[in-house]
Amino acid sequence: MSDNWNTRTKLVHGGSRRSQYNEVSEAIFLTQGFVYDNAEQAEARFVETGPDEFIYARYGNPTVDMFEKRIAALEGAEDAFATASGMAAVNGALTSVLKAGDHVVSARALFGSCLYILENILARYGVEVTFVDGTDLEQWRAAVRPDTKAVFFESMSNPTLEVIDIAAVAEIAHAVGALVIVDNVFSTPVFSRAIEQGADVVVYSATKHIDGQGRVLGGVVLGTKDFIRGTLEPYMKHTGGSLSPFNAWVLLKGLETISLRVNAQADSALKIAEALEEHPALARTIYPGLPGHAQNALVQTQLGGKGGTVLSLDLKGGKEAAFRFLNAMTIPVISNNLGDAKSIATHPATTTHQRLSDELKAELGITPGLVRLSVGLEDAADLIADLTQALEAAQG
Question: Could you give the angle at the alpha carbon of 163 between the alpha carbons of 209 and 274, nearest 5°?
């Protein structure tokens, strides 16, 4: 692969390897293990594997390796490790570097499962976690300490779509030697260049835009070769969170079209947000690409002006109005995924974030009327018409 290739070329050809049959589409190596020519070769491989050598599917696989190399080329990272799901990636990125007595600073606005890892799992093992408002740099400065081991945040929060300044938080964290771990799902690997902006470790749920067609689970952690192979890989291969070869193959196919899909989805999301922004049924229309969004200026510099594929609609009538709206839609499906070719709507307060206390929901802006809409590849005009009639129905 040439370092001079542009993004879309890397997404089609990056990391490719061919067997002796010279197949066009990448091969799926559905095997749990690998055969050695002799006992001496087996011994040598367990001491150190070469760049094109494998031991066991939990440790690595040729199809998985292709996916890791391709996503690393897209992200501009030295290396990547593919995982069984996005949460396996989040857990691995955090747990592999932390031990009892360490201190972590995290943004408070997080997906429910991420909060569970930070509040329950890490605390159970003696890791101290301090939560801050991720958009308030003064809170980051006040919370970070000389013994802070890592900081963690979603670069665009779920579901209220706050955008955190990666470069500014990274500067604060690096001043005390802390590792910067960024969950970059909503920003997407197409629009974000988190590593260039100061992130040390970037995490994706590949289930979302990378597959983007509702087929498989997957995740990936990206960073330096030292971190990926020296810190993360030993933890992941011994705890069993690695990606299956079949899922890796599906994700490779997803990467070939991710740029086309995500750009089209973001363009539609902006059109929908603009069309619905002043609708009388809505208390708020939240979309980072709108000029009125609190971090819209940061979107221009951090995301190249693209507001992402998700918007959130806060209905004035609370939960009852939100449910009427959801039930009146005819094109988007009600589910809890995002980044899919199909438009997907969910009610965070009763699904993805239901375990949060009412007080924390209110603090995070997750109101009873909030609906998260992941915009798919349907025609934007059709979606606008459908969402408009659903909003009319929601008014009762």
Answer: 75
Summary mean pLDDT of the chain: 95
Looking at residue 1, its pLDDT comes to 61
Q: Output the pTM of the full model.
A: 0.94
Residues 6+ apart with CB under 8 A from 117: 87, 90, 91, 94, 95
User: Both tokens of residue 14?
Assistant: 């990056």
CB 51 within 8 A of CB 65: no
pLDDT band per the 50, 70, 90 thresholds, residue 10: confident
Count CA atoms within 13 Å of residue 31 on its CB side.
12
Name the pLDDT band for 19 (thresholds 50, 70, 90): confident
Query: Residue 24: which pLDDT band, with cuts at 50, 70 and 90?
Result: confident
List Cβ neighbours of 352 (8 Å cut-off, separation of 6 or more).
Answer: 111, 112, 158, 159, 336, 346, 372
| Mean per-residue pLDDT, 155-167 | 97
Spell out the SS3 assignment of the chain.
CCCCCCHHHHHHHCCCCCCCCCCCCCCCCCCCECCCCCHHHHHHHHHCCCCCCCCECCCCCHHHHHHHHHHHHHHCCCEEEEECCHHHHHHHHHHCCCCCCCEEEEECCCCHHHHHHHHHHHHHCCCEEEEECCCCHHHHHHHCCCCEEEEEEECECCCCCCECCHHHHHHHHHCCCCEEEEECCCCHHHHCCCCCCCCCEEEEECHHHHHCCCCCCCEEEEECHHHHHHHHHHHHHHHCCECCHHHHHHHHHHHHHHHHHHHHHHHHHHHHHHHHCCCCCEEEEECCCCCCCCCHHHHHHHCCCCCCCEEEEEECCHHHHHHHHHHHCCCCEECCCCCCCCCEEECHHHCCCCCCCHHHHHHHCCCCCEEEEECCCCCHHHHHHHHHHHHHHHCC
For a pLDDT cut of 90, what percent of the chain falls above it?
Answer: 88
Q: What is the pLDDT at residue 3?
A: 72
Contact 325, 371 (CB under 8 A): yes
Please, are residues 106 and 132 in contact by the beta-carbon 8 Å criterion?
Answer: yes
The string of pLDDT tens digits covering residues 181-196 is 999 999 999 999 999 9
Question: Token match 């991420």: residue?
Answer: 114
Higher pLDDT, 168 or 4: 168
